[in-house]
Please model this.
Amino acid sequence: MAAGLNTGIDEAPVFETTLTMPYTLTTGRAAGTYLAELANQRIVGSRSSSSGKVVVPPSDYGDDGEPPELVVVPATGTVTAWTRTSAGTLAMIRLDGADTDLVHRIVGDHFGLANGCRVAAVWASDAETTNALAGFELTDAPVEEAEVVPLETDTEPIAELPYQLDLDYQHSYGLYYGRMFDELATQRRIVGTKCPSCQSVLIPARGNCDVCFVPTAQVVDVADTGTLLGFSVINMEFVGQKRKPPYIYAEINLDGSATRLIHNVGGFDIDRTEELLSIGMKVRAVWKEGTSARGTLADIDYFEPIGDQS
Ligand SMILES: [Zn+2]
Model:
């Protein structure tokens, strides 16, 4: 497969892209307190009132189903398992007095790391609150009689955290979509495919006619003018919207094609839409200015009315 644009019909362009998913994480009481107390250089766990079992990080419910007591556990512990990753060394650490392991980074010089090694927390005072625990380092300090003590604090739990998940991936549009988007980006030209049976020109370009089920094979130019088949003024805002309302969403039949294209109509005072737009009128693509073509239908900014030229 070829990378980037400007490829022939026998090559499928591949586009580097990122799927970004921002969201807000609601932490809950236990995790929110754990995160908030990191700024105070304290590691919080929860202690079940019936079994006395100490869990780190804390849980909102104990093993008896009741809200447990929040406690501060020592910032020292013992490595029970570890692994090296491309992002560094990760270990399961049984903090002193805890009954479960905390997974965290091992930082600093840790040649000779082995199960059973003693480690101590490393605090990053200049980091964001939730990253204040930089990791754990090997320590020679003797095991002291560390104690799990009830948490006493005035610090508010962190109720919400902004998160963003970024998925980097390569997207191939395939031979037909790829060619079409390639032409949009590099030639400012709309292409479709022609069915040898019914002679229909199909947009988006596709490999088979969806009426005759025969291979289309031939790529043809399509005009960037067309007929307005329907339109709607969008006033509502919603997640993922590419344009700020109000704008006009329209169904357009490009001249020479047998299909409908969904795009925007614009280039005039939107308050005059009723007066200026009518079903059946001719429209023409207005291409985006400059060299920012990305090989998508958004390379066409909108379609503008060109009056009755049919
Ligand atoms: Zn056909």
Summary: Residues 1-8 have pLDDT under 50 and may be disordered.
